[in-house]
Amino acid sequence: MKSKIVGVIAIVLVFALDQVSKAYAIDWYSQSGATEIFKFCSLVEVWNRGISFGMFGALESSNLIFTYVSLGVILMLFVLFVQSKCNKSTICMGVVIGGALGNLADRLRFGAVYDFISLHAGEFHWPAFNFADVCVTCGVICFLCLEVMYHAKACVDTSGDPDALSVKKY
Q: Which sequence ranges are marked TM in the entry?
């Protein structure tokens, strides 16, 4: 139960930080335009109607399609969140759900996701992203690492035979 509370806090915190960071970035951009923060990082304004890296953004009804896809993914993640028995996995899913909700809120309010962080080195420019994207990416990576570690730990030899593995129940 405690992990669920921490997971819900993660959802709310990530969602709130994402929305605040976007509001701040929108305000900053409207007053100052694109701004270099570091040699490799700039504050920009990109309205992303597609998915990752702006893919499929030119589709006529992309916002509607991706809104429904986002809702489906969030609902699926929430079911997994509720069913999860692993504290760390619950927190990872909370971070992912919070980020996904942040981007969904943009789609519902603006018809596109607001991206404002641009990383670049010389002529190389990574597609713009936002705090929610970072949280979704980090949450998924942490969740996958936990799953790999859990499954590696769950396989144990019970017979002395190196080819005989069984699943250890925790």
A: 5-25, 62-82, 89-111, 126-146
Q: pLDDT (tens digit, 9 = 90+) per residue, 95-145?
A: 999 999 999 999 999 999 999 999 999 889 899 999 999 999 999 999 999
Q: Considering the entire predicted model, what is its pTM?
A: 0.82
The closest of 33, 59, 55 to 116, measured between CA atoms, is 33
Domain boundaries, the chain: 1-151
- Residue 77 half-sphere exposure, CB side, CA atoms within 13 Å? 26
What is the pLDDT averaged over residues 86-97? 91
Task: Give the angle 124-27-96 at the CA atoms, nearest 5°.
Answer: 65
**Whole-number percent of the chain with pLDDT over 70:** 81
120, burial (CB in 10 Å: exposed 0-12, middle 13-18, buried 19+): middle
Could you tell me which of 1, 20, 2 has the C-alpha nearest to residue 98? 20
Give the CA angle between residues 70, 11, 90 to the nearest 5°: 95
**What is residue 158's DSSP assignment?**
S
Paired residues of 152 in beta bridges:
none
Cite the active site residues.
115, 133
Query: Helix (H, G, I), strand (E, B), or coil: what is residue 145?
Result: helix
